[in-house]
Amino acid sequence: MKISVAKEPLLHVVTAIGGIVPARSTMPILYNILLEAEEGHDGCLKLAGTDLDISLSYRMKATIERPGAITIPAKKFGEIVRVLPNSPINIEQTGDRIKIVCEKSSIVLPGLPKSDFPAFPEKSFDEALKISNAVMRKLVLHSSYSAGKEEDRQILKGVLWEIGKDEMSMVSTNGHRLAKMTVKESLGLKDSLSVVVPPKAAALLSKSGGVCCPVVNVAHATWAWGSMPPGITILPVASITRWTSPIKVLGLCTATIFPPCIPMS
User: Fold this and answer.
1) N or C: which end of the chain has fewer CB within 10 A?
2) Which residue range forms the structural domain that includes residue 223?
3) Is residue 7 located within the same domain as residue 109?
4) What proportion of the chain, given as a percentage, has pLDDT over 70?
């Protein structure tokens, strides 16, 4: 493998993938990030990482002189890219090592073969839902903070994502407080979808993307991380109490008070 790539997009991608690389694992290969140069995509560099629960991959433009693939330590690679000057970065593979050259800097990193890296599940995005990144970030940031932290109630650590014909909503709860965010968004669905998003995936949705990814493609899978307990997932509409504060200092504000969530036995 021999490639040349711009620093800024590479740093963005490496930082995003580094967020899912596990801090501790019994599989050393999971500490690595996969670099794969592909000629068939008009000069495309694929970068991927996984912790076996969540997989994240990016494809970015690059000048490909020789295709190839290798895995290298994600943390060390991220630290190197971050301190390199803002110039094209040349990466060349020789056996199980890669050489990184940028202006006067030259670094050699050891690697592991691609065959040791876990295979990614194949998923078609031909009929994927296209959702604005700004809408996705709004949903996650205004709902995920109420998710649970307790290890003995794993399902409450996730965020329930409901996609309807004319609106989308995300809701989370830790058994004591509940947060729900709803936005009007018509995606042309015939049937509604509902899935619980794992906590790390929800965090990635709120951090990745931005300018480099203005639209999020969502392909609904046949599996789910789990299902929320009955009685918690739906807001108790019949018990809603609304009040308007007359205090001028606070201005005109409206609050909604809900009864306590039903705890799990």
Assistant:
1) C
2) 129-235
3) yes
4) 73
C-alpha 135: how far from chain center: 15
Does residue 60 form part of some domain? Answer: yes
List the one residue out of 63, 76, 32 whose CA is nearest residue 50: 32
Q: Long-range contacts for 160-164 (Cβ within 8 Å, ≥24 apart)?
A: 160/194, 160/195, 160/196, 160/197, 160/228, 160/233, 161/193, 161/194, 161/195, 161/196, 161/197, 162/192, 162/193, 162/194, 163/129, 163/187, 163/189, 163/192, 163/193, 163/194, 164/189, 164/192
**Number of folded domains in the chain?**
2
User: pLDDT category, 251, cuts 50, 70, 90?
Assistant: very low
Q: How many other CB atoms are there within 10 angstroms of residue 56's CB atom?
A: 22
Q: Is residue 140 part of a domain?
A: yes
Residues 1/92, Cβ–Cβ less than 8 Å: yes
**Number of residues that make up the chain:** 265
Residues 109 and 199 placed together within one structural domain of the fold: no
CATH number of residue 59's parent domain: 3.10.150.10
Compute and round to an integer the Cα radius of gyration of the chain: 22
Fill in the amino acid letter for 211.
V
The answer on 162 and 106 residing in a single domain is no
Task: State residue 239's pLDDT score.
Answer: 54
